[in-house]
Amino acid sequence: MSESSYKRLDHGDIEAIRAIIGDDTRLLYGVDLPEDYSHDELGGVASYPDIVVRVKTAQEVSRVMKYAWDNNIPVTPRGAGTGLVGSSVAMEHGIMLDTTLMDSILELDEENLTLTVEPGVLLMDLAAFVEDHGFFYPPDPGEKSATIGGNISTNAGGMRAVKYGVTRDFVRGLEVVLPDGRIVEFGGKVVKNSSGYDLKDLMIGSEGTLGVITKAILKLLPKPEKTLSLLVPFGTLQQAIDTVPVIVKSRHIPTAIEFMERQVIVDAEEYLGKPFPDKSADAYLLLKFDGSSQEEVDAAYEAVADLCLEQGALDVLISDTEEREESIWKARGAFLEAIKGSTTLMDEVDMVVPRNCVNDMVAYFDEVQAAAGLRIKSFGHAGDGNLHAYLLKDDLSDEEWKRRLDVAMELVYKKARELHGQVSGEHGIGFAKKPYLKEALPEADLELMNGIKAVFDPKNLLNPHKIAQA
User: InterPro entries attached here (predicted)?
Assistant: First the structure.
């Protein structure tokens, strides 16, 4: 559907939606529409919806979608708005479906090791609930105030992906409202499923372009009995990164393998107002181990500690108390906000490269800084090749920022393609990264993506202009 074909909401549409919802307090429009709904955490892409509907049930979502379908009104699903690529920005205005009030944990099935939740449940609340019951939900994206629906929509990864995998690996079933208002179920509690095309997996990572997730069945694991972290300082970042393949090839795979540089640690210290256990070295690996017994964890970390020292580590600092553990991982969790607080505006590159190319990619950031004239700070998941590079505006004018940003983005993504990487490891494409996806993928891939979109949403009403669309 062309832009001119979409209907802008008028008084009659608002009255119709009011009749569907029956609760004025859950409708936001006009002067009552908060500015936060015009953008996500990225901030660089902005567009207001005509109305925000704070839905509570799948039936409400269904009725709103059916009304939108019948009246050619675009609809944008939204969780907590913590995304970084403009996925939840209403580029064509219309209706925004805020799912944060759908925040119930519906069922803990201890026999099938599943948890059934609504999409607005926050990741931190989900993790706390299952751990209180002796279980473990491994996906661990850095933004703990994100909703599980948003995590599923972007196939979020996080720090534990090196051992356990990403969100897709822990979604068993989904309830979805299609663009025409039909409520369908994909997958379920079964462990194995070869029953036709995997429609569930198509939904995961589709960024709200194919359907609105209203319920999810998640896979759980027994909670590890013991955990321990190592903070390993190195003289150079290359030494740190080059150690990662050695660790991965060992028989003792950590739960997480993160890399960080001293300046990002300093930023986090200033942001949190708390000291980091060590900031004497230029680069660090942060490793986490878990297991069913202390003996299992000890054997793993001792073997990996020896490998790190053999590769030139300056020391191995063991985080074996709750206080040390909290100080290290709280600092790691604050990196994004700390970097954001150190500049006036930033944009982010979330590329992923093969693990043996991480050092090449990170080292290239210095060349990009010089070529584009921008400060770049980076950290990432060294164990799975997912790197986060933050490009900082500082005191540049808007025009100069845009020019230099374009140069830097082109250089970074070009290098990622040369290293056989991909545009995004876990944040998605949304609106902001579309040009780089189109450069990275063959035309046939893009045609298939848009063909899938057309099958689910022939009127192109659901989250238009995202991922591979024009």
Answer: FAD-bd_oxidored_4_C, FAD-bd_PCMH, FAD-bd_PCMH-like_sf, FAD-bd_PCMH_sub1, FAD-bd_PCMH_sub2, FAD-linked_Oxase-like_C, FAD-linked_OxidoTrans_Type4, Oxid_FAD_bind_N
